[in-house]
Each structure stands twice: as C-alpha cells, then as structure tokens.
Amino acid sequence: MTMQWQEHASLKPFNTFGIDVKARWLAQAHNDAQVRSALESAIQRQIPVLVIGGGSNMLFTRDVDALVLHMASRGRRICSDDGERVVVEAEAGEPWHPFVQWSLAQGLCGLENLSLIPGTVGAAPMQNVGAYGVEIKDVFAGLTALDRQTGELCEFTLEHCAFGYRDSVFKRNPGRWLILRVRFLLSRTLSAHLDYGPVRQRLQEQGIEAVTAQAISDAISSIRREKLPDPAELGNAGSFFKNPVVSVALAEQIRTHYPNLVAYPQADGGVKLAAGWLIEQAGWKGHREGDAGVHRLQSLVLVNHGLASGAQMQDLAQRIQADILERFGVALEMEPNVY
Ligand code: FAD
Ligand code: NAP
User: Fold this and answer.
1) CATH of domain 235-338
2) Which end of the chain is less packed: N or C, by CB atoms within 10 Å?
3) Domain ranges for the chain
4) Ligand found nearest the CA of 180
5) What are the tens digits of pLDDT across the range 229-284?
6) Is 335 a catalytic residue?
7) Is 336 in the pocket of ligand 1 (CB under 6 A)?
8) DSSP percent split of the chain into helix, strand, coil, nearest 5
C-alpha cells in the first residue's frame, strides 16, 4: 500500500478534544515498513515527526509544523498458551477498548478493569494507563519499539519500561521510541480487583453473584459512561491533571481546614489526593469561559464545548493550577501531552 502525505491537514478528527489545528503533513502508517519509510523520508526532508494514536491524551495549542504520523496498524494474536497463562500481542494502532473486549472473548482475564479507556494499544505504555486499581504494568509482558535515534528494533521488558504512576521511560523521553506492538500476560483464572471506587457495589446492585471478568468490564463501562463525557459528544482528554502525591504533613495541614479531604495513603509514605476533589472545593466544577470549561460531573476533566482553542484550554488549566497551589499548597501536574 503506498503512503500518502496529506498537506495542511486538519487534526480535528485526530484529537478527542476536537481542537482544530493543522498538521503541515499527515500520514497513516499501517505496518512496520510504512513506519520506517515515513521516518526515513522525514529525516531526508528534515521534517520533525509527531507520532499519534487516538489523540485522546493530547492537547494541541498550535498548528503542528511536522509530519504527524498516525498509527493505523492492526492485528492481535495469541503468542503462547500454557492452559492457564496466555501471552497476547496487539499492533500499536489497535483501538484499546475493542482489544480488551477481544481478550475477554478469548476467556482471558487481566484487562477488565481497563475497559472503555479510549486510544490505542501503542500509546497505552506511554503513561502506563490505569483505572480502578489496575495499571498495564500489572499485566505487561513486553513490547517492541523502533529506536528513532538508531533505527534499530528494541525489545522492552517490564524493567526497561520503568513504569510509574501515569509515567514510563517513553513519557520521560518523548519522541525517542516508536512503539510498534505490545504484549500482555493474561490468565484464564480471574483475580478480581473490586475494591476500588464503586465497582463491587455496582456488581451487587446488578445482582451478579458469580463475578466474571466480562461482568467487571461491563460494570466499569457503565460507571464510566455515567461519569465521563463521551469525546464524540463533548471534547475532552479524560483527566486533565494527575492525582498529586503529597507529604503526610501537607495532607494533615489541608485536613485542618477541609475535614472531608479525599486522601489515599501510599506505600512509599506519601498521600495521594484526589485532584478532582481539590478542584471542586475551589469552586471550578462546571465553570465555563467561552467554550473552554470544567466538566459539570467530574472536575478533573476539562471540556471543549465546541470551538475552544488549545491555547484557551491551556490558559484555563494554568489558572486552575495557580488557584490550587495558592489555596492548598498543592502543585497539579498536567496529564495530557501538550503540543
Ligand atoms: P495519543 O493521545 O495519540 O498519544 C499520547 C502520547 O503517546 C503522545 O505523546 C504520542 O506522541 C504518544 N504515542 C502515541 N502512540 C505512540 C506509539 N505507537 N509509539 C510511541 N509514542 C506514541 N488514561 C488512563 O490512563 N486511564 C483512564 O482511565 C483514562 N480514561 C480516559 C477517558 C477519556 C474519556 C479520555 C478522553 C481519555 C482517557 N485516558 C485515560 C487518557 C488516554 O485515553 C490514554 O492515555 C490513552 O492511552 C491514549 O492513547 P492514544 O492512542 O489516544 O494516544
Ligand atoms: P473516583 O473513583 O472518583 O476517585 C477519585 C480519585 O481517587 C481517582 O482518580 C483515584 O486515583 C483515587 N482513588 C479512588 N479510589 C481509590 C482507592 N481505593 N485507592 C487509591 N486511590 C483511589 O475516580 P474517577 O474519576 O471516577 O476515575 C475512576 C478510575 O478511572 C480512576 O482510577 C481514574 O484514574 C481512571 N480514569 C482516568 C482518566 C485519565 O484520563 N487518566 C480518566 C477517567 C478515569 P487514581 O486516578 O490514581 O486511580
């Protein structure tokens, strides 16, 4: 398949915020050969390259003077199966949620808590995607990436990825590696994680006694549909800020003024605060300035009501950060990749 480079292409359909910026060039890569060909051409023409998947963790604040390479590679397969433990692999461009549903249909457990996360398989390791008490590091079996500095293929183990909370070696070195495919170690026996948020309660409400991975996936999907805006209807990139981990002393100081503080002690001795709760206490919930706003149900999600620019979204985010720092002494870090 020959590869087309589209000039001055709108990126509106390629980011879930629905921000209308243009890419100097846009191309779709369906396989490794097209990835290599695009990168080589870009080097020859001295054009920078920005790789994207579903654009669900991006905030574009300006036109992109680069080749935007959209990962459109597809394919998922079982690599090994000892009857209990099964390694599956998917190409970078595979949409994440259908991949999760495919794994469940094979009778495989491990990805159910990560249901309904938008985006692609290839981007999932970038921030070690996580939800409802599970992160991909918990089921990670390896990945294959192209080193863009050397052109060599690299195999990454769990250790190499240096996964942290919404973090990885890939996030800390943007543009260094292009992830081609990812492997997960799944299991035929369910090890259910139900203690996070309202998952157990939702299953009980549904009268489900024999809990299956598919039932957990369905319960989490229904909770998410109630709380989170669908990007097809209201532009957003999910949580706009990471949940901050602060010292016990700071958490206690905040609690003297806010006895209902939502705080989770961490294994390392810190305390994770719910950023959405802080933003809500500060009065930002449902706030709107033109088309840039804070979601009315979940303050951690910034939304584009239609025609907001990326710069307007960023400006709103920065004012929220300044306000939270002043009120609580807590520095909020943005989660999406800002370009
Ligand atoms: P993109 O936004 O396209 O890219 C993200 C970053 O990865 C960019 O820096 C890009 O350059 C890079 N990248 C993309 N593909 C590759 C590749 N193949 N190789 C190298 N670099 C690459 N995240 C969570 O962790 N948990 C959640 O529960 C969650 N819920 C969400 C809910 C909603 C409604 C939305 C809109 C977002 C949510 N997110 C969540 C954020 C987002 O969906 C994830 O981070 C997702 O993994 C991003 O995938 P993507 O393909 O859209 O990445
Ligand atoms: P929630 O249940 O209202 O909880 C608020 C925050 O408190 C969460 O973000 C979560 O942190 C933390 N939390 C809740 N229960 C916890 C527990 N038992 N132990 C430790 N921390 C706990 O959150 P929500 O907004 O509806 O999201 C539900 C899950 O989906 C969360 O895991 C969230 O991260 C994930 N999610 C992520 C995005 C994104 O874009 N990154 C978007 C939507 C949802 P953690 O975030 O650290 O889990």
Assistant:
1) 3.90.78.10
2) N
3) 6-71, 76-227, 235-338
4) 1
5) 999 999 999 999 999 999 999 999 999 999 999 999 998 899 999 999 999 999 99
6) yes
7) no
8) 30, 30, 40
Q: pTM for this one?
A: 0.96
Q: How far is the CA of 224 from the centre of ligand 1 (A)?
A: 17
Residue 162: HSE in the Cβ half-sphere, 13 Å Cα cutoff: 7
Q: Which ligand is nearest to the CA of 335?
A: 2
DSSP 109: B
Q: What would the two tokens of residue 83 be?
A: 């009857």
Ranges of the chain with pLDDT below 70:
1
Measured CA to CA, the distance from residue 77 to residue 81 in angstroms comes to 11
Strand partners, 273: 263
Q: Say if CB 310 and CB 292 are below 8 A apart.
A: no
Phi and psi of 128, rounded to 5°?
50, 65
Q: Please check whether the domain covering 6-71 is classified as CATH 3.20.20.70.
A: no
- Local structure of 210: helix, strand or coil: coil
197 lines ligand 2 (CB under 6 A): yes
**Closest residue to atom 33 of ligand 1, CA basis:** 238
* Structure tokens given for 6: 């589209």
Q: Do strands 22-29 and 64-71 pair parallel, antiparallel, or not at all (unpaired)?
A: parallel
